Amino acid sequence: MRAIAYYDYGGPDVLQVVDIPIPEPGAGQVRVAVRASAVNPADWKIRSGALSFGEPVFPQYPGGEIAGVVDALGPDVTEMAVGDEVLGWAVAAYAEYAISNAVARKPAELSWVDAASLPVSVSTAAKALAALKLQPGETLLINGAAGAVGSMGVQLAVADGVTVIGTASAANQDIVRELGATATTYGDGVADRVRALAPDGVDAVFDAAGHGVLPAAIELRGGTDRIVTIVDPAARELGVTFLTGGPRPVELLHQVAERVASGAFRLPGPARTFRLERAAAAQEESEKGRGPGKVVLTVS
Ligand SMILES: NC(=O)c1ccc[n+]([C@@H]2O[C@H](COP(=O)([O-])OP(=O)(O)OC[C@H]3O[C@@H](n4cnc5c(N)ncnc54)[C@H](OP(=O)(O)O)[C@@H]3O)[C@@H](O)[C@H]2O)c1
After folding, report:
1. Residue 263: which residues within 8 A CB-CB, separation 6 or more?
2. Which of 25, 56, 178, 197 has its CA 20 to 30 A from that of 9?
3. Quick one: DSSP state of residue 28?
4. CATH classification of 2-117+271-298 is 3.30.420.40, yes or no?
5. pLDDT tens, 43-91?
6. Ligand 1 pocket: which of 65, 231, 267, 283 to mutate (most atoms <8 Å of CB)?
7. Collapsing DSSP states into helix, strand and coil, what is residue 115?
8. Is the beta carbon of 144 within 6 A of some atom in ligand 1?
């Protein structure tokens, strides 16, 4: 099968199309014939060497989320069948086939590209909201509310009765409002703008974009309590919680997929799509760090 691999850290040009054996699913796993595989900022950060999880082992096979058709079952898998259309988290996902141990059924009305855009956003946003222990009626600030993760955070929080203020660029203010939040711009003076929108203060802050917002978040909260970031390495020295990884909430993913299919939830913008073999161009697009809309590889 065709897959994308790299043999050293570097720029997008280290990404190569390779021909490797189709992987076999183990216990608890399914093999998915991939229709679309989303690109996450972590993919280019790991490829460049900026983000590392220990000693590198090459070749590396990037990609962490897919939509496609179940093609083979591991020995003990009973809840899925060959031919099921699914979306989920996967490994080595820039490929024609990928292995997953966490897939949800894809609603028929949801496109492959939109389905592949959901898993990482859903799991990351859900983990952040859970860590913040939000209650209905509380006010949450989300930095980067038009991004893939931020926009999912807005909608999950609003669905739980939380009032959300979301930051985005001037161009994406309407999108943030359409997601159900009060919008403001990020950058200099953000603490003053948020205070004007929430005179009684914010109960929690979810930094889904970085760019040095944490001091303003601490100022708004009067301390580091109930602030989380998924991006900013300054968190450690500031005493703010940095979240990474976490559980793969298959049932929630299924519910969100149904809500997107029915129009109750929306993606912040249309995906920017690239063919699998153009993974380098796709990662360059992801590296721009601008929404709205996910960067997605189409596979077959
Ligand atoms: N730790 C984890 O587990 C985890 C998991 C997933 C993602 N992440 C990280 O989370 C970040 C967001 O991921 P994503 O997939 O949501 O990316 P994304 O869709 O590219 O969104 C990035 C967002 O950042 C916003 N942004 C750009 N400049 C900004 C600034 N100066 N201040 C505030 N916001 C700014 C953009 O808003 P505009 O488009 O309006 O400019 C955009 O919406 C990435 O750094 C990613 O690596 C971490």
Report:
1. none
2. 25
3. T
4. no
5. 999 999 999 888 889 999 999 999 999 999 999 999 999 999 999 999 9
6. 231
7. helix
8. yes
